[in-house]
Design a protein that fits this description.
The structure holds two protein chains of two kinds. By secondary structure, chain A is an all-alpha fold. Helix content of chain A is about 85%, strand content about 0%. Chain A has one domain: SLC41 divalent cation transporters, integral membrane domain (Tetracycline Repressor, domain 2, Orthogonal Bundle), CATH 1.10.357.20. In chain A, about 50% of the residues are buried. Classes of the chains: A mainly alpha, B mainly alpha.
């Protein structure tokens, strides 16, 4: 029974994947250093970062898990753009938009309470929404691609989309965040 | 079919995501308050996403495994030290003991490309190992406690505990990492 494995079996199966994805995340760290440099032009920006990365992970892993179930149950097809896939894509993008707005407003509130230098609310909202929605759209299509490709190849999309989506998601999110900050700071609002 | 009912999915996700947003803002606040330390040791920023990802992976794997074991009736939601529970705890501890120093070492190697000192090869693994073990112990405890409590209440730990625990793990991870680094330097 798979759940009652020995200690070493569990270690053998989880250790390589956990180490591999921690290396992938070092790229996120590299980009995070650039974001940090950029933060001097956008005071309060750092407050957004854990939320942006965390939400992207939460939304895309739930999306990946639902796609996997959908493929297994057959209401999402691997051959055409099915209705189940369309609805799930829409939900994932809508949630990215909604949570980005929530996050930026909370971050601005907390920043105004605790810190003397904060960028304007509109900058928080623009950075969060542009980065959140663009990375949300990109990652949703990548996750859908990985899920459908794995299913066609006879792999369980539950095992492939969740870990790969989480680490690719962080790298994509931090790049989108960096571009969004450069754009919004460039606007000079 | 409930699984493509958009309203149902939104109704379940929005409250959890809102709690996650709130918790994550506090992680961000802590990051924002420690810019001096981060400027002093820039390599810390390169480690941070990997560090919190390892924490997140370990706690989600454990919660997911506990959840399956609870659903299958292999463990009961009482705090008796059964073999299966202990195996799950030990395996996650072993995984942590290996992955955190490896992460610190590789991060030091990545940093040395950008001209960081050789001391990083000792300091980074030491920081990631110490901070990692503290965080993982807290998360293992939280994972067991929350999985049991939610399961007893008739909820599915897979959907409730994992997102909340990964977000809380980010907060705990960032705080412990910065505090441990601050103490070591």
């Amino acid at each position: 029974m798979t759940v009652a494995k020995s200690t070493w079996r569990i270690v053998e199966e989880t250790l390589p994947i956990i180490i591999l994805f921690s290396f992938v995340e070092l790229f996120t760290g590299g980009f995070l250093s650039s974001v940090f440099t950029e933060a001097q032009f956008a005071p309060g920006l750092l407050i957004l970062i854990p939320g942006m990365l965390g939400l992207r992970g939460n939304i895309s892993s739930a999306f990946g898990a639902r796609l996997s179930s959908g493929l297994h149950l057959g209401y999402i097809s691997t051959k055409r753009f099915s209705k189940g896939l369309k609805i799930n894509l829409e939900i994932s993008i809508f949630l990215s938009f909604l949570t980005s707005i929530l996050l930026s407003v909370f971050a601005w509130l907390v920043c105004s309470w605790t810190s003397t230098s904060c960028m304007a609310l509109i900058n928080f909202i623009l950075i969060s929404v542009i980065a959140g929605v663009s990375s949300g759209i990109l990652l949703s299509f990548i996750t859908a691609g990985i899920a459908i490709y794995s299913y066609r190849r006879g792999l369980d999309p539950d095992n492939t989309t969740l870990p790969s989506g989480a680490s690719i998601g962080d790298v994509i999110t931090i790049i989108c965040l960096l571009l969004a900050v450069k754009f919004v700071v460039g606007l000079g609002l | 079919m409930t699984y493509i009912n958009a309203k149902e999915i939104l109704k379940e996700s929005i409250p959890v995501l809102t709690i996650c947003v709130t918790i994550s803002v506090f992680s961000g606040l802590f990051l924002n308050k420690n810019t001096e330390l981060l400027k002093f040791l820039p390599g810390l920023l390169i480690i941070m996403p990997s560090f919190i990802a390892v924490n997140g992976n370990i706690s989600s794997v454990l919660t997911s495994r506990l959840s399956s074991a609870l659903h299958m009736g292999l463990i009961k939601p009482n705090f008796r030290r059964t073999k299966i529970l202990l195996r799950n705890i030990y395996s996650m501890l072993i995984v942590s003991m290996v992955s955190f120093p490896v992460l610190g070492f590789v991060a030091a190697a990545a940093n040395s490309l950008f001209g960081a000192s050789k001391a990083a090869f000792v300091i980074f693994p030491l920081i990631t190992f110490t901070a990692g073990m503290i965080t993982v112990l807290l998360l293992i405890f939280a994972s067991i406690l929350f999985s049991y409590v939610t399961y007893r209440k008739g909820l599915d730990p897979d959907t409730v505990v994992i997102p909340l625990l990964t977000t809380t793990g980010d907060l705990v991870g960032i705080v412990v990492l910065l505090v441990v680094t601050g103490m070591m330097i």
